[in-house]
């Protein structure tokens, strides 16, 4: 049976999933990761029942980059396990001002996406490398790019612009917003599990190693805490979140840092890691008594609370608050502390439910429902890929009919 391969390429690892499809839509059957790329490459994959499908190490030179990683994963799946692919769906962080929905990749699309690399210098090149490698080997295999920015493209001009001269907006300097695949999935999941909430005013907090929040009005994104790049908004594992641009001028001019050094600093040395001086991982900070750890956690939940106020203003009120991603799904401590910060908006947490791992964690009388909804960006990519594949097949059939 033909499957869909979903690829999510990060800086030093490549995550992938294989989906089979039926009338119900895509179902994940294999998930895996190739990490240690260029250093100690190791490919691990499990089946849906968590049994091990592959655990294989490589010499550093065998898997030196993301392109090689995509080839290694694909080869393992095809040659060792007989998986054949109908299409590949990729997570691509930036669709720039051009793409407001997923797109079937051709040479023009690929060169357009390369032009957006300066908008996401640490992510976009990584996302594109596997696409190129697969295209070289399998030129006729359909590949689909799914963007983190696309879901936010319906924002109003007031939300989309920075207060800078408009020619820069025309150059692409806009408040794009990110984590769109996660928010789109959450909006679709709310439709299934809580349709009344899905149609109301909802804040979704995607709290992972990258973190942002999104205001959803009837399932559509109206505001995001992230902007031009994935640096803005909430403090994250290693990124500072919102920061006065004057700080950057200070680093460049007074501290004499190079632009590249500032870039590395902002993406890798700030956030929870920089502030705590201990770790970028919330698990470490939660279990530490060190003052730096406490301060970092306090700052994190404080900023989530502040941003909740901002997003509630964008929505003109609030009906529900949803936690998702690594921290949002797993840290009852962060959820409880954030709930305290948004009590004034009407959130009344049920502490027992918060510990119990259930979906609704607010009390029945809470004016704002508080939920935990696990995200699934890969499933969203598989769905989009399937839709584009079907429309592509339909177009080809039409063309054959009219030829
Ligand atoms: P990514 O953004 O890389 O996809 P995730 O959404 O998986 O990451 O989130 C990763 C983060 O989730 C980790 O950095 C860690 O801080 C946090 N995390 C994972 N498990 C827990 C847990 N049990 N308690 C608190 N935080 C957790």
Number of E strands: 13
**What shape does the CA trace take?**
globular
- Contiguous low-pLDDT stretches (5 residues minimum) are none
Strand order of the largest sheet: 5-4-3-2-1-6-8-7
The largest sheet, given as strand count, sense and whether it forms a barrel, is: 8 strands, mixed
Termini distance?
Answer: 30 Å
Bound molecules: adenosine-5'-diphosphate
Percent helix, as a range, is: 40-55%
Taking all Cα atoms into account, the compactness measure Rg is 22 Å
What is the mean predicted local confidence, pLDDT?
95
* Discrete helix count: 16
Approximately how much beta-strand content do the residues carry? 15-25%
Structural class: alpha/beta
Order of helices and strands: EEEEEHEEHHEHHHHEEEHHHHHEHHHEH
What order do the helices and strands come in, and which of them pair?
Layout: E1 2-9, E2 13-22, E3 25-35, E4 42-47, E5 52-57, H1 66-80, E6 84-92, E7 103-104, H2 107-115, H3 124-137, E8 143-147, H4 157-160, H5 166-170, H6 180-193, H7 195-198, E9 201-207, E10 211-217, E11 220-224, H8 245-254, H9 259-268, H10 271-276, H11 282-286, H12 291-315, E12 320-324, H13 325-330, H14 332-341, H15 351-356, E13 369-372, H16 377-402
Parallel strand pairs: 1-6, 6-8, 9-12, 12-13
Antiparallel strand pairs: 1-2, 2-3, 3-4, 4-5, 7-8, 9-10, 10-11
Adenosine-5'-diphosphate (ADP) binds at residues 208-210, 237, 281-283, 325-327, 330-331.
What does this structure look like?
With 403 residues, the protein is α/β, with parallel strands linked by helices. It has 16 helices and 13 strands. The protein has helices spanning 66-80, 107-115, 124-137, 157-160, 166-170, 180-193, 195-198, 245-254, 259-268, 271-276, 282-286, 291-315, 325-330, 332-341, 351-356, 377-402, and strands spanning 2-9, 13-22, 25-35, 42-47, 52-57, 84-92, 103-104, 143-147, 201-207, 211-217, 220-224, 320-324, 369-372. Strand 10 and strand 11 (220-224) form a beta hairpin. The model has no long low-confidence stretch (mean pLDDT 95). Bound molecules: adenosine-5'-diphosphate. Adenosine-5'-diphosphate is lined by residues 208-210, 237, 281-283, 325-327, 330-331.
């Amino acid at each position: 049976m033909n499957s869909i391969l979903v690829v999510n390429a990060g800086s030093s690892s490549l995550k992938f999933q294989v989906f089979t499809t039926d009338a119900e839509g895509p179902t994940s059957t294999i998930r895996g990761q190739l990490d240690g790329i260029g250093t100690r490459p190791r490919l691990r994959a499990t089946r849906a029942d968590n049994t091990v499908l592959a655990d294989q190490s490589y010499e550093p030179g065998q898997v030196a980059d993301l392109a090689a990683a995509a080839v290694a994963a694909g080869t393992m799946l095809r040659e060792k396990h007989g998986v054949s692919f109908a299409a590949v769906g990729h997570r691509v962080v930036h669709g720039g001002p051009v793409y407001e929905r997923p797109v079937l990749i051709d040479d023009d699309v690929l060169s357009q996406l390369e032009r957006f690399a300066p908008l996401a210098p640490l992510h976009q090149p990584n996302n594109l490398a596997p696409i190129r490698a697969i295209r070289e080997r399998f030129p006729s295999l359909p590949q689909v790019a799914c963007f983190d920015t696309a879901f936010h493209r319906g924002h109003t001009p007031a939300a989309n612009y920075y207060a800078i001269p408009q020619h820069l907006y025309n150059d692409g300097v806009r408040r794009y917003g990110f984590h769109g695949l996660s928010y789109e999935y959450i909006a679709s999941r709310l439709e299934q599990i809580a349709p009344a909430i899905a149609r109301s005013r909802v804040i979704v907090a995607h709290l992972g190693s990258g973190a942002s929040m999104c205001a959803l009005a009837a399932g559509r994104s109206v505001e995001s805490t992230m902007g031009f790049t994935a640096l803005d908004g909430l403090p994250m594992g290693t990124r500072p979140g919102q920061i006065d641009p004057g700080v950057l001028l200070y680093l460049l001019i007074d501290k004499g840092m190079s632009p590249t050094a500032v870039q590395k600093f902002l993406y890798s040395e700030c956030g929870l890691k920089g502030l705590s001086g201990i770790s970028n991982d919330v698990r470490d900070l939660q279990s530490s008594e060190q003052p730096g750890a406490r301060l970092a956690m306090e700052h994190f939940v404080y900023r989530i609370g502040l941003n909740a106020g901002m997003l509630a203003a964008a929505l003109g009120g609030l009906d529900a608050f949803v936690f998702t991603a690594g921290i949002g799904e797993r840290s009852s401590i962060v959820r409880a502390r954030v709930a305290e910060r948004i009590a004034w908006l009407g959130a009344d947490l049920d502490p027992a439910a918060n510990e119990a791992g259930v979906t609704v964690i607010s009390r029945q009388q809470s004016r704002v429902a508080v939920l935990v909804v696990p995200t699934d960006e890969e499933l969203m990519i598989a769905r989009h890929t399937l839709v584009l594949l079907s429309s592509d097949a339909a177009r080809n059939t039409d063309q054959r009919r009219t030829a």
